[in-house]
Amino acid sequence: MKRAYVNECPSWAFPCEYESEHRFMLGDFVRPDTRFGRFFRRNAVLLVGLAVLVLWTWTIGTICYHNGKVDATQELTEQYEAEIAKAVQATKDEIAAAQFLSGDASKQAQMEHDARLIAQAMDGIKTITEREDDLRTYAWNILFRVSDPGYPSSVAEVVGQANQYMGFSESNPVVTDKYRIAMEAVEDFYSGNWPTTAKFLYAEWDAKGKIILRDTYLAGRDTEYWYWGK
Question: pTM value?
């Protein structure tokens, strides 16, 4: 008895042929006679929509990511700029404060020096008068000359001029009361609190030794006079 053969072979018998028959190609998706082609044709709108959705999501995500990086960078830049501006301003404030303190200390030292010189000039006329009003008048005569363009611009140069303030010497003692009077005059002078105008540049003594200032070198009919307390 002859055996009947089935005209079919299992897939494992001819693996190469089976693989070639079941290999999927990209063209299968567009060929209408294939299973994938039929699926693609029936669901084309859905597939295109999914592709558009994926592309749109990727685009939006990329833009958001980029904008997030830009915003973060801008925020950090603004923070750095604010910190730098704050540091610069703090440095400027420190410099201004140092300059103010330095200028204030320098001004105070200058006033103290001027007051010492005026007190020494006062000591030079102690044989003529030591009345407080006379000493204040004498101090302002010196300061008025400092402010006048026809005389030196410092107390040291004014009192040091020859034949002007008799008896002045830097070796004269600085008496406490005279230094106090001189410092009060110097402080008022630098603050602009003057007792009168600066035109009284010349001094004279009356018979009782009272110091009187006048606005002309030689006394005349139009000469004006001033003294402390007038």
Answer: 0.56
